[in-house]
Write a structure and sequence with these properties.
The complex is a heterodimer of chains A (337) and B (332). With 337 residues, chain A is an all-alpha fold. Chain A is built from 14 helices and four strands. In chain B, the strands form two sheets. Chain B has a two-stranded antiparallel sheet with strand order 1-2. Chain B has a two-stranded antiparallel sheet with strand order 3-4. Classes of the chains: A mainly alpha (337), B mainly alpha (332).
């Protein structure tokens, strides 16, 4: 078990290193001059050169990548040139490990830029996750238990339709009707959990529902299919023959086998969403990682984008490992080796 | 799907006497077609998809003929004192604009939605082909070779899946389109469309590759592969002449299921401002524009919104129906 985790972690780190290289090449060797972008619209050639030197853009891309990786382990000091730092000690910004770079557009380290956005994205993802797991499983179980009935068909039909609605359409509809026209909720703004747990939750309802509807539709259909498949297993038939009642049969026997594949998917979907739901955050104006990515993109703030990409990939890679371990716990037939 | 006709067909395959008459043996293909035709939902979705495809092919022709006009401004039909809403009831419906006009510009809604569906389907079909071709080739190579090549392709799948997709599609658009402009001399909306095809295609192949690899792992143990190898067939011959014809069924199903997900992705990217730009319409950019008019001009909003739901639902149902028909073991 321990050896398995170590091996997976080593592969995960190797994957991240390769990803950081690919991301670097994609974004920093392209048609853009990152120093130009960092410097702003009105910029003299001398200023561009100065920025370029301060942030290391004058070096070859592999050297830049190398010092980026070193920065993740030991941290960095900006400007990168030691002589400049000694001449202007008041200009120096320290970026503690794991340092993801410096965003000239925000005149701050990427870590600080990301720090304020992470709790918002995590909040939306967690509340949405609770909604979609409860809703998806509930509708999936109801549909599977009433297979072939009108209720079942209604649930399957509705989930197909909600699955097809683009997130930005659902979000805009909820925002325009529920918040603006009918005024059931106030216009959602993010309130930190530490400030007021009640307001934190009520303000998250609309964005979380927007996000959850799509996943709820997918999970209702999937859990229905898995439950129906599991209920044809021999041991379920045996339990039924021994006189186990319908509801305990579902929850004690069928569901356990049906849920294992769902755990994998739920874990990975949650990991992806922890890194920011771009569309939902954009629709509701929540300044999480998703919206940060959108604004960084329009301001061509490459270091921040690279930082977000790598942070999100880390989430996904960790989730992959966690999910595989969980899988072995839930399903005793699975052995890690 | 009912169980009885399937059972009857399987018995009739070996020519058993049923109800007093002998039925001829049926090929697996024939059986699949029969199964498909017995499922009402699959047939209905097939008809809808067929109509969509015919409509999509007709749209550019109708534009050439001047029947559809997606880009002529009709400022006379816009009430600028009323926030740019169309004059007249129900989004400015009239004989010449049967579905009304677009607020602010006065473009014809019918033409824009129709041609938009056409462009979206074309772009997404190209992206699907890119994904399926890459996925099929890498999947076959990976499943057949198993050794080091399998490991490399497996890690390539991991790498592709670890990238945050939406974010990459958004953030890569500026540098890659700049590259198209400077190196390939692709400009304007052509570059935007090619970008959507390339990135959707390049991020979508892992699911196809995994599926194909799984199939190939069992196919490679069959006798006809041994036979081909023993007469000295080259690897590429084995990949494409021996294995590929045996994985076409799952590939067809996967194509039908990838296409609607790309239609949704195109719409989402349009909302973020990536992809084909107006005045050229795609379903995505029309819908993205229409969502800003949900309260002001509900008809203009609901037409593309319902259209995308119809397209995505019917393609998903068609994919499910094809899977059930081609693989009788997968019960719905």
């Amino acid at each position: 078990m321990f050896a398995y985790i170590v091996r997976r972690a080593v592969i995960g780190v190797a994957l991240l290193i390769v990803m950081s290289l690919v991301t670097f090449i994609l974004f920093f060797s392209g048609a853009f001059d990152p120093a130009r972008n960092a410097c702003g619209k009105v910029c003299s050639p001398a200023q561009i050169e100065q920025t370029s030197k301060a942030l290391g853009y004058d070096k070859p891309i592999l050297t830049q990548w190398g010092s980026f990786l070193a920065g993740i382990v030991v941290g960095r000091d900006y400007p990168l040139d030691k002589k400049v730092r000694e001449e202007n000690p008041d200009l120096v910004t320290h970026c503690a490990a794991p340092c993801l770079g410096y965003s000239m557009v925000n005149t701050d380290t990427v870590n600080n830029v990301l720090k304020s956005a992470i709790p918002i994205s995590v909040s939306i993802a967690l509340v949405a996750f609770v909604f979609w797991i409860i809703g998806g499983l509930l509708f999936g179980i109801i549909a599977a238990m009433t297979k072939g009935s009108f209720l079942d068909r209604g649930i399957v039909g509705l989930s197909l339709i909600f699955y097809a609605f683009p997130t930005f359409v659902v979000g805009s509809l909820l925002l325009r009707f529920v918040a603006i026209k009918w005024q059931i909720f106030a216009l959602p703004v993010y309130v930190p959990l530490t400030q007021s747990p009640g307001l934190w939750f009520t303000n998250l309802i609309l964005p979380a529902v927007t996000l959850a509807l799509f996943y709820m539709a997918a999970y209702a259909r999937m859990s229905r299919a898995f439950i129906i498949e599991a209920s044809t297993e021999d041991y379920v038939r045996t339990a039924k023959a021994k006189g186990v009642k319908k509801v305990p049969l579902m929850f004690k026997h069928t569901l356990r086998a049906a849920l294992t594949p769902l755990v994998t998917m739920a874990g990975l979907d949650l990991a992806i969403l922890l890194g920011g739901a771009i569309i939902t955050e954009d629709v509701f104006g929540f300044h999480g990682l998703g919206l940060l990515a959108v604004t960084s993109n329009s301001r061509q703030d490459l270091p921040t984008i690279v930082g977000i990409v790598l942070l999100l990939s880390t989430f996904v890679i960790i989730a992959n490992i966690v999910v595989d371990i969980l899988y072995a716990y839930i399903d005793p037939r699975v052995r890690l080796d | 799907m009912a169980i009885s006709p399937t059972e009857t067909e399987q018995r009739s395959e070996v020519g058993v006497v049923i109800a007093g008459e002998t039925t001829a043996a049926k090929s697996p293909m024939r059986l699949a077609v029969d199964r498909f035709r017995h499922d009402k939902l699959s047939m209905a979705s097939f008809v809808v998809v067929a109509l969509l495809v015919i409509g999509a092919i007709l749209a550019p022709i109708l534009v050439k003929l001047g029947v559809l006009d997606y880009s002529t401004l009709h400022q006379d039909l816009i009430d600028n004192t009323n926030g740019g809403l169309p004059t007249g009831a129900h989004g400015g419906i009239s004989a010449s604009h049967p579905l009304g006009v677009v607020p602010g510009t006065g473009w014809d809604v019918l033409s824009r939605v129709w041609l938009g569906v056409s462009f979206s389907l074309a772009i997404c079909l190209c992206a699907t082909v890119v994904s399926v071709v890459i996925g099929a080739v890498l999947g076959i190579m990976s499943g057949y070779s198993r050794g080091a090549l399998d490991w490399v392709i497996g890690r390539l799948v991991d790498l592709t899946l670890s990238f945050p997709q939406t974010l990459m599609l958004l953030a890569l658009s500026a540098p890659i389109i700049a590259f198209f402009n400077s190196s390939l001399h692709l400009h304007g909306n052509l570059a935007n469309a090619v970008y959507i095809i390339v990135v959707l295609g390049l991020f979508g192949w892992p699911s196809v590759a995994r599926l194909v690899r799984g199939q190939v792992l069992s196919i490679r143990e069959r006798e006809f592969i041994d036979a081909a190898r023993s007469i000295g067939a080259s690897n590429s011959r084995i990949y494409f002449r021996e294995i590929l014809p045996n994985v076409w069924a799952p590939l067809l199903v996967q194509t039908t299921l990838l296409l609607p997900s790309y239609v949704s992705a195109e719409a989402a990217l349009s909302f973020l401002g990536v992809g084909v730009q107006a005045p050229l319409p795609t379903l995505g950019n029309v819908l993205a524009d229409a969502t800003t008019w949900i309260l002001g001009d509900p008809l203009y909003f609901w037409i593309p919104a319902v259209m995308i739901v119809v397209i995505v639902v019917s393609l998903n149902l068609l994919g499910d129906g094809l899977r059930d028909a081609l693989d009788p073991k997968s019960g719905r």
